[in-house]
Design brief:
By secondary structure, the chain is mainly β. The protein has a single domain, classed as Jelly Rolls, CATH 2.60.120. 3% of the residues lie in helices and 42% in strands. The structure holds 6-O-phosphono-alpha-D-mannopyranose (M6P) and zinc ion (ZN).
Amino acid sequence: ADVMVPFAVHVDFQSGALTPDPVILRRSHADLAGYFVNESDAPGEDEMYAVHEIRVPATNNNLLSSTTVLQPGTVGGEYFMTKGHFHATRDRAEIYLTLSGQGLLVMALEDGTTQTKEMRPGIVNYVPGHWAHRSVNTGDVPLVFYAVYIGDAGYDYATIADQGFPVIVVEGEDGPEVVPNPRY
Ligand code: M6P
Ligand code: ZN
């Protein structure tokens, strides 16, 4: 079997930058078109979030990990959020450690059961297998978190792209409110 050489990566907790040499995936407003319930404003090419991933093979003997930098803002009253996904291999778990900013981690089972947990610096969120997961920036600075997951987890975006999560997170009079998704 291949034996890898140990390595270290520096994580900047404010910016989410990884040094050296991450794979960077950028998601613009246009990439999220159709994800928000009320999209009256035309989605542009502005960045909504970036994922900086440490390079290791996506196999079941490795741990993939990444920082996500999710910008603050709202679309039609809904806070900026990641697309969210189930793992293609459904039972694969994931851990999030929030580094800066604040938000909510929305999770759902395929039967519609929902859990929502606070994200703030120092909090580790454990996402067991079978739970779809999406992070939502409810603050006014970037939400930055580090995620670790089993290398062969894979992504299933289609289910969420079609019907969304059972709940959405909207800006209320006294802050964020988790309300039923009218399209679910
Ligand atoms: C976290 C992890 C990544 C994921 C990213 C953005 O960093 O869960 O695997 O890619 O968030 O979320 P999404 O892929 O749902 O857009
Ligand atoms: Zn995941």
